Amino acid sequence: MPFNKNSNGFTFFFSILMVVVVGAVLAVTSVSLRPLQKANSAEKKMINILAAIKVPAERGGTEEVFAEFVTARIAINSDGLEVGRMTGPVDPSNLEDPFNIDIKKDFRSKKPAEELSFPLFECVTASGDQMYVVPVVGRGLWGPIWGFLALEVDGKTIYGAVFNHKTETPGLGAEIREDFFQEKFLGKSLRAEGSPYFEVRKGGAVTDDHSVDGITGGTITSRGVGEMIDRTMGHYMRYFDLMKK
User: Fold this and answer.
1) What is the 3-state secondary structure (H, E, C) of the chain?
2) Which segments in the chain show pLDDT lower than 70?
């Protein structure tokens, strides 16, 4: 019996069919693109880690540069003990690789630090100096902020800093990603003991070796940068202290 294309039944059936077909196409597309998305995300992360140690890299040849300057990928626990280490090529799908620890997801989960692992990157600069790159994540005014802090072999002197954001205000909090702000961190140091380990003070404030002045008009975002560094370094300072002993 032929369908009555003007009936409500046909319209309902056709709508369901289109939803199923379109949903299936989108699902297949999403699954097929996932490896490429992971690879692109990994490459961007490599570029940022290299930027923290002042090594330029461009898309397309990042993996080779990363392998040359990042000598080990380490995972530590909240007590500063090493619980994982990998070298060689990065596989974005290998969950055992410390490179693939999703600190943004862990931060959103609000799990106790005792249940998490924290990634650390052992690096060497173009001049042959050993460095450590620590990833940090926190909250700005409108959304997440994150970055990478490069420390010299003493575990406290800041060699480089790279920060980024998702939705901060242009001309204000969004300025954390600009060179003029990130360069303020160079040569500064983390407090060996006591809290906070590091501060980002209100824009224009007096600073010392363990602080920088924030962005005028971007007080909350600047404070978020200081908070994420101070909170994160609590775990890594334990690692550096154990390493020295």
Assistant:
1) CCCCCCCHHHHHHHHHHHHHHHHHHHHHHHHHHHHHHHHHHHHHHHHHHHHHCCCCCCCCCHHHHHHHHEEEEEEECCCCCEEEEECCCCCCCCCCCHHHCCHHHHHHHCCCHHHCCEEEEEEECCCCCEEEEEEEEEECCCCEEEEEEEEECCCCEEEEEEEEECCCCCCCHHHHHCHHHHHHHCCCECCCCCCCCCEEECCCCCCCCCEEECCCCCHHHHHHHHHHHHHHHHHHHHHHHHHHC
2) 1-14, 17, 22-37
